[in-house]
Design goal:
heterodimer; A: alpha/beta; seven-stranded mixed sheet; 8 helices; 35% helix; globular; B: Aconitase, domain 3; five-stranded parallel sheet; 18 strands
Chain lengths: 167, 420
């Protein structure tokens, strides 16, 4: 799977309150969460994103609360992948679980400017910027299975269907 | 080969003799939990995947009354639907009335035992480490999978040991212990790790005071924070359950990533400045900052001991003009104990507002939000921009002593200065 788009940069330690303020937590509807994404940090973030763009973050992205509304909101803006120097573990799991690839690649993050064209190849494990490719940390086999299914809900659907078939 | 406390609990959950840091395991979950923010989505995903039966209703606990009474139709409807799901599935451990919030309620009900793997769709699940359980926070879709299967994948974490030594000063509390630790490790110094808190300065602390420490492990990025079980924990548990449990300790020669020493006698009370829990300085350094609101409560400091400590300074004094003091007992039992002891009357006499049991305004949902430019001293665990309403409001995190001192002075001040 290959993702190509323009980079949207955010800094270090961006917490989930900044990704999606709690006043939006009354819903899990992606269309409603889209407008709240980075509300207090980047005005009209969703309006600046073209489908397939890449969010590029510094260290510890998604720290704070476990609200899954955070990756849902990011995905709803059209962002197709998050590349970060590092992730908080809850955000990383939840992003993968809803089918939003989360890639750890500090070497690339340091070289990307806002708006740069970036491509991410999930099969080869590379982030390419300005003609140079950087390898990222390989996913664990469990994570690869979830990504391949398109998310954990789809993975669970298949697991349950297989068991029903076997029974 | 030697193992850490975390490795021993996870080996048992994985049905293995031994596991090592860095490995990925499939672990059986002893207790699965979710709340009013996270259960609705978990149940939605569960149904979306075609699941019909939860793995074991007796190993599930849903606490959906964190924001009771519900502020709007959307939340009321969602919690209503969670209640229907729990009845259909035979989940008896469902709490959505006045019982309070999960991290204070569930250990107090005796549901959390040493050696358990507890997964909860909430970031402060690490709180359960104070009674020797391995509490792992996660999101709603992870919880949907657990509700269906009773298991999850986990990376076995490296351990960072934090040793507390020394004799704390008169107004230095377990909140100061953990804030001092945040000052050293920062907001990602324990990312993906298990923190093991231990040392002679923990021994005299009650279990309620210890929860304050384990609660904030997540603020350092940790997967969880655990403590070895001692007599204090055993008597806490014996008063609440007849169940058996397993006690683990790290082997003396277990491999740990690093050990951090904190001398709790080295400084007076501390405070985390806006907008990061690791922005920790001595209270004296921010003395004189005017405050508009003071909050006492939450899973960090919403227990009876916290109300007692606050009252040491509030008793016989009045909340300063222009300051709102908002007290939120974490559970109904705490509220009732405070009532019986006369604490609620004393708080009211001082000029406090008392919220219903639960999370109060901590997550910016209701019951005490902040206006543009306002300053709040809170006993909470997070002070991110916009956390409690306006993104330009400033939140300082501190102990109940420091919070109460600010409430009566109208500005940040040391507890000693108020008491003298």
């Amino acid at each position: 799977m290959k993702i190509s788009g323009n980079a949207h940069l955010v800094g270090d330690h961006i917490d989930t309150d900044q990704i999606i303020p709690s006043k939006f937590l009354g819903t899990t509807d992606p269309a409603a969460l889209r407008s709240g994404c980075f509300l207090n940090l980047i005005p009209d973030f969703a309006g600046t994103v073209a489908s397939g763009d890449v969010l590029v973050a510094g260290d510890n992205f998604g720290c704070g609360s476990s609200r899954e509304h955070a990756p849902i909101a990011i995905k709803a803006t059209g962002i197709a992948c998050v590349v970060a120097a590092s992730f908080s573990r809850i955000f990383f799991r939840s992003a993968i679980n809803i089918g939003l690839p989360a890639v750890v690649c500090p070497a690339a993050v340091g070289l990307i400017n806002d708006g740069d064209p970036v491509s991410v190849n999930l099969d080869f494990g590379t982030v390419t910027v300005a003609g140079r490719s950087h390898s990222f940390e390989a996913f664990a086999p469990q994570v690869l299975d979830i990504l391949a299914a398109g998310g954990l809900t789809e993975f669970l659907t298949r697991t349950l269907a297989r068991e029903r078939g076997a029974a | 080969m030697a193992s850490t406390l975390a490795e021993k609990i996870l080996a048992r959950a994985a049905g293995r003799e031994r596991v090592s840091a860095g490995e990925i395991i499939t672990a059986r979950v002893d207790l699965a939990m979710a709340n009013d923010f996270t259960a609705p989505l978990a149940i939605e995903r569960f149904k979306e995947a075609g699941a019909t039966k939860v793995f074991d209703p007796a190993r599930i606990c849903i606490v959906a009354g964190r924001h009771m009474p519900f502020r709007d139709q959307s939340l009321a409807d969602k919690v209503g639907a969670v209640g229907v799901f729990c009845r259909e599935q035979g989940i008896d451990r469902f709490f959505a009335d006045t019982e309070g919030m999960d991290h204070a309620l569930v250990p107090d009900l005796g549901y959390v035992l040493p050696g358990m793997l507890v997964c909860n769709a909430d970031s402060h699940t690490c709180t359960y480490g104070a009674v020797g359980a391995f509490g792992v926070p996660m999101g709603s879709t992870d919880m949907a999978f657990i509700l269906a299967r009773g298991e999850t994948w986990l990376r076995v974490p490296e351990t960072i040991r934090v040793r507390y030594t020394g004799l704390p000063g008169r107004y230095v509390t377990s909140k100061d212990f953990v804030l001092a630790t945040l000052g050293v490790l920062g907001v990602d110094g324990a990312r993906y790790k298990s923190i093991e808190f231990y040392g002679e300065a923990i021994t005299p602390l009650s279990v309620d005071e210890r929860f304050t420490i384990s609660n904030m492990a997540i603020e350092m990025g940790a997967k969880t924070g655990v403590m070895p079980v001692d007599d204090e924990v055993r008597s806490y548990l014996r008063a609440r359950t007849d169940a058996e449990w397993v006690e683990d300790i790290s082997d003396p020669d277990a491999v740990v990533e690093r050990t951090v020493g904190i001398d709790v006698g080295a400084s007076g009370p501390v405070i985390a400045r806006p907008h990061s829990p690791s922005n920790v300085v001595p209270v004296t350094e921010v003395r004189g900052v005017r405050v508009n609101q003071v909050n006492i409560g939450t899973c960090t400091n919403g227990r009876i001991v916290d109300i007692q400590q606050a009252l040491e300074l509030l008793r016989g004094r009045k909340v300063a003009k222009g300051v709102r003091l908002v007290v939120t007992p974490a559970t109904e039992r705490i509220r009732r104990d405070a009532e019986k002891a006369g604490y609620l009357d004393e708080l009211l006499a001082a000029g406090a507002v008392i919220n219903p049991p639960g999370c109060g305004p901590c997550a910016g949902w209701h019951m005490g939000l902040l206006a543009d430019g306002e300053v709040c001293v809170a006993t909470h665990n997070r002070n991110f921009p916009g956390r409690m309403g306006s993104p330009t409001a400033e939140i300082y995190l501190a102990s109940p002593y420091v919070a109460a001192a600010a409430a009566v002075s109208g500005e940040i001040i040391t507890p000693e200065a108020v008491a003298s």
